[in-house]
Amino acid sequence: MKISYNWLKEIVETDLDPRELASRLTMAGLAVDAVEPHGDDQILEFDLTSNRPDCLSHLGIAREVAALSGLQVRMPEAEIKPVVERTGDVTTVEIRDADLCPRYTARVIRGVKIGPSPDWLVRRLEALGQRSVNNVADITNYVMLETGQPLHAFDLDRLQGRRIIVRRAVDGEKMTTLDGEERELTSSMLVIADAERAVAIGGIKGGEDSGISETTVDVLLEAAWFTPVQIRQTSKALALSTEASYRFERGTDPGIVSYASDRASALIARIAGGEVLDGLIDAYPGRSAVEASFQPILFRESRYEALTGLRVELAEAERILTALGCRVRQGSSSLASGTLEVVSPTWRIDVRIEEDLIEEVARIAGYDLLETSLPGSAGAGAYLIGEDDRRATRRLLTSAGFHEAVSFSFVNAGLDAQMSSAAEESRLVLLDPIDASQSHMRTALAGGLLRALEHNLNHGSRNVRLFEIGKCFQANQLEPDGRPTEIERLALIATGARNEFDWQDAGSRLDFYDLKGILEALADQLGLAALRFDPGAEIPWLHPGRAAMVSLANGDPLGSVGQLHPRLVAGFKVRQPILLAEIDFQRLLAAARVEARYNQLPKFPTVVRDLALLIETSVTWQSIDETIRSLNLTHLVDLRIFDIYRGRELPEGRHSIALSLRYRAADRTLTDEEITAAQEQVVRILTMRFGAELR
Fold first, then answer.
1. Tens-digit pLDDT profile for residues 105-134
2. What domains, with CATH codes, occur in the chain?
3. CA-based, 20 to 30 A from 579: which of 70, 376, 397, 593?
């Protein structure tokens, strides 16, 4: 928002130079980003928060300057000299949807002469980035920048029936706006219509067929107050943002509508040579609702001190609030001592509760009075449930070379559907998305990690390892309070070299077993029983034969791990394999833990015996491991696979695996007979179940 210093001084006569003024306003919560010279003027550029639409004008900033400096605001001249003919005899206004437009005013100026604006008006608009159009259009823009109230001028002779109807659009209704674009409207949008058709999109942009032109003689001037939410929704739906919609969607002052109309009418009569008809048509069906929204608020000295740590005299608080435009009452028998009753002005839509009043007094009194101190505490803090395990997970993954990513919860529906098995009815659709291409809430983390991986690859990083812990959303499962279920998930993605700094093994690449090992290490870190991996399931987004479903030891499903399907890899234009794992982290954290038990260091030696078996290639190591452990051999303490051999001399469909079995007794040294008997049991059960042959 840009403000002219010279223009501002016409409304409030401040002695502060532009840079001093910028500093004072910034300290009062209105950040000034820059002060730039422009001819004989200085332009202050503000970075306003969305809750201060009252400052989107010179009058709004002038009120702040007056409150800070103890000055008075001089309202710009708005005196008109109407002729005998009345506005109500020339046109009418009908509001059919007061919930979208609580107030609409119209005034008629006859006999205007459309032409270029005077130099002073053109210079003032151009200094603030506005292009001059013609004298009438320039005056409406000028008054908007001055008062914060957008206005629109119609050519009265081009309005069918010379009347205004404020109504909802009809689904499929079309109109061409002033920029030459044809817009298709819906019934959720508000239009300004004449007796036959829509002539403007309410609060956003006028229509081409009713705008001011060189032939215009009679002008109908609109000044209205529109509901902010519907302006915002219409602006987003039509991808049409204007200076007017920017103000209306944040909330304009319903009380300044008639004054702004008078101000603009007086300027049009003076500059364009017209005559203002007597009377203002002021349709205000929403008056009671608007007035009801400005209820008295109590301001208590004790509450002010409790929140700010500062003391304030009640008289000083009254002075500040009055200077800001509030109506203040104290001393009544119905009010407790040290209390004010305050009604905020109509332009301060952000002042609704006592804390808002406290903030207003504190910022005008000076934020620099606040002392920095730590809040008191009666006890020590504590982690959230499961936070220790989350931190342990992060430590494990970062030690394995992974970096944590944080991606948006808003996702592209197509990509999310490709990376998730969630049903269509479980997907949450945003009613008003920030980006039309990111219109759904995620049901999986994989899509966001894929985008992050793609970004890294595009910037030349070929070895990438990322993980994310975050919430996913299910619309078909609801919490007791009716909200969609949020599920905490963990996802990992990796590609590239297994160890990019190992020159001796530079060609080694990450594969399925690396991610499988990470998940197994995570289960061990959290004290869980060994995870199960089922390679038989089909997972649409993972490579067939290089993927597995992951589950807890008791069979509860967790998620999947594997290599990304070549079809998806091609879509991301990546030429190297991508490994991906995603599991239900919430269920993993809730799983039963294996009891940790202390054992003395062994006093007797461990005996190691190896086996080499010829076995079907379809037999998984997991099934071999479970089969051997099912024997419950008393002295078997460890079991590992240390070699796999495939060669032409072996039968087709079979390979040789080498196992290492470790035996130990706690009270003695085992004999050869005991070890041999155990080994024979292992060979026997593997032969019976899998047709294994001892080599």
1. 999 999 999 999 999 999 999 999 999 999
2. 2-69 (3.30.56.10), 83-289 (3.50.40.10), 294-367 (3.30.56.10), 387-590 (3.30.930.10), 607-694 (3.30.70.380)
3. 593
